[in-house]
UniProtKB/TrEMBL annotation:
Belongs to the BexD/CtrA/VexA family. Residues 1-21 form the signal peptide. It comes from Flavobacterium restrictum. It is a multi-pass membrane protein. Residues 39-127 form the Polysaccharide export protein N-terminal domain. This is Polysaccharide export protein. Gene3D superfamilies: Outer membrane lipoprotein wza domain like (3.10.560.10), wza like domain (3.30.1950.10). The chain crosses the membrane at residues 222-241. InterPro entries: Poly_export, Poly_export_N, SLBB_dom. Residues 130-210 form the SLBB domain. One of its GO terms (molecular function) is polysaccharide transmembrane transporter activity. It is found in: Cell outer membrane. The keyword Ion transport applies.
Length: 242
């Protein structure tokens, strides 16, 4: 009886060490060019984005204003949420389409609308939920909030404390949501053109996976960190390939 119990426990242990990819297929879209540096890139507003609106000297027109004495947007929920229709409800102005607009485009539109009541409105728009997620063999796997439209790969790796000893620098995966598809690239930092690779451009919502040299299991670790984004299934696919 004890032997059967031990065997059962061992089977459960090994089963728990590997994430089961039950609802996904092992396919990926490889596109290196999509991750190369693009000086003209600007983040476009997405559904469920959290937006703060600051109008100088007009607290009644602001939501989570950066001009206020206390900036507690995340604590008190002071933001405009982009809804399923891609719109936000702006004080005084009303329902405004924000989906797929850049921040400068939305600012210009709101400024024009506010000129009906203000002579020269000074406004600022900020996306509060721009993040990049780093998983796997780094010292502090984490989801990192960024203020810029894009950052570089090594810039984000440095914010996790750097690579762990067993990090496989030949097979770093980057996942990006593009519409209904998830595109993937593989980065090898040990090759001759590694300098170009280190400057590879990361966009908000990208997920970086750094595997182990010896295929060390870290699916269990990932399960506690990975954010609830539409790239989760793709991350599960990638993990299933190691």
């Amino acid at each position: 009886m004890k032997t059967i119990l031990k065997t059962t426990l061992l089977l459960l242990l090994f089963a728990s060490c590997k994430t089961q990819n039950l609802l996904v297929s092992k396919t990926e879209i490889i596109d290196k060019t999509a991750f190369m540096y693009n000086a003209d890139y600007q983040y476009k507003i997405r559904k469920n984005d959290k937006i703060s609106l600051s109008v100088w000297g007009e607290d009644n027109l602001s939501v989570g204003s950066i001009y206020g004495i206390y900036n507690s947007n995340e604590v008190y929920g002071k933001w405009l949420m982009v809804d399923a229709n891609g719109t936000i409800e702006v004080p005084k102005i009303g329902t405004t389409l924000a989906l797929n607009k850049t921040v400068p485009e939305l600012k210009a539109e709101l400024k024009t609308a506010l000129k009906k009541w203000l002579v020269n409105p000074i406004i600022d728009v900020k996306i509060l939920n721009k993040e990049v997620t780093i998983l796997g063999e780094v010292r502090n796997p984490n989801t990192i909030t960024i203020d810029k439209d894009y950052v570089t790969l090594l810039e984000m790796i440095s914010k996790t404390g750097g690579f762990d000893f067993y990090a496989n620098l030949k097979s770093i995966k980057i996942l990006r949501q593009e519409g209904e598809n998830v595109i993937v690239t593989n980065i090898n930092l040990t090759v001759a053109d590694a300098i170009l690779n280190t400057n590879i451009q990361l966009h908000p919502s990208d997920i970086v996976i750094v595997p182990s040299k010896k295929n060390k299991e870290f699916d269990k670790r990932i399960a506690t960190i990975i954010p609830l984004t539409t790239t989760i299934s793709a991350a599960a696919i990638i993990m299933g390939l190691f």
